[in-house]
Amino acid sequence: MSKEFLNPATLMSPFGYSHVTKVSNCTLVHVSGQVSSDASGQLVGEGNLEAQAEQVFKNLKLAIEAAGGTMADIVKMNVYLVAEVDQAEIPKFRAVRDRYVNTAKPPASTLAVITRLARPGWLIEIEAVAAIDA
């Protein structure tokens, strides 16, 4: 398997993500949006973006490991934050993210601010695609 993380000079310099990921000869794993609920379905970190992000990344890690991969195998992440999260809180999310992803070769990522998530209290949801050795 080969993975390339590309940042063309013709695009702005990214901060914490790669513009392009290119993968060949692998198994792709698509992970549904993970939220800040524990295994029993209880909300973790009500009103606290940092605590919720930590739980979301723990859940994401468990999901990818169940498929035989690691967090370093993530090639794409979509992050959804609810609009009630103050923009000044985003660095707290990034600090948690950087403990879980390969910061030297970060995945391609999208961060979107949305009106709400499926359940009240959830502040963040992350879905991912991982490329695992076949």
How does this structure look, described?
The chain is α+β, with helices and mostly antiparallel strands and 134 residues long. It has a single domain, classed as RutC-like (60s Ribosomal Protein L30, Chain: A), CATH 3.30.1330.40. It is built from two helices and six strands; from the N terminus they run βββαβαββ. The chain has a four-stranded mixed beta sheet. The model has no long low-confidence stretch (mean pLDDT 96).
Produce the secondary structure layout:
Blueprint: E1 2-6, E2 20-24, E3 26-34, H1 49-66, E4 74-82, H2 90-100, E5 108-114, E6 124-133
Parallel strand pairs: 4-5
Antiparallel strand pairs: 1-2, 3-6, 4-6
Helix pairs in contact: 1-2
Question: Roughly how many Å is the radius of gyration?
Answer: 15 Å
Distance between the termini: 7 Å
> Hey, roughly how much beta strand do the residues contain?
25-35%
User: How helix-rich are the residues, as a percent range?
Assistant: 10-25%
CATH topology: 60s Ribosomal Protein L30, Chain: A
Tell me how many strands there are.
6
Query: Structural class of the secondary elements?
Result: alpha+beta
Low-confidence stretches: none
Looking at CATH, the homologous superfamily is RutC-like
The backbone outline, from C-alpha atoms, is globular
Instruction: Count every helix, treating DSSP H or I runs of 4 or more residues as helices.
Output: 2
What is the element string, with H for helices and E for strands? EEEHEHEE
Largest sheet, described in full?
4 strands, mixed
CATH architectural label: 2-Layer Sandwich
CATH class: Alpha Beta
The domain count comes to 1
Question: Mean pLDDT score, rounded?
Answer: 96
Report strand order across the widest sheet.
3-6-4-5
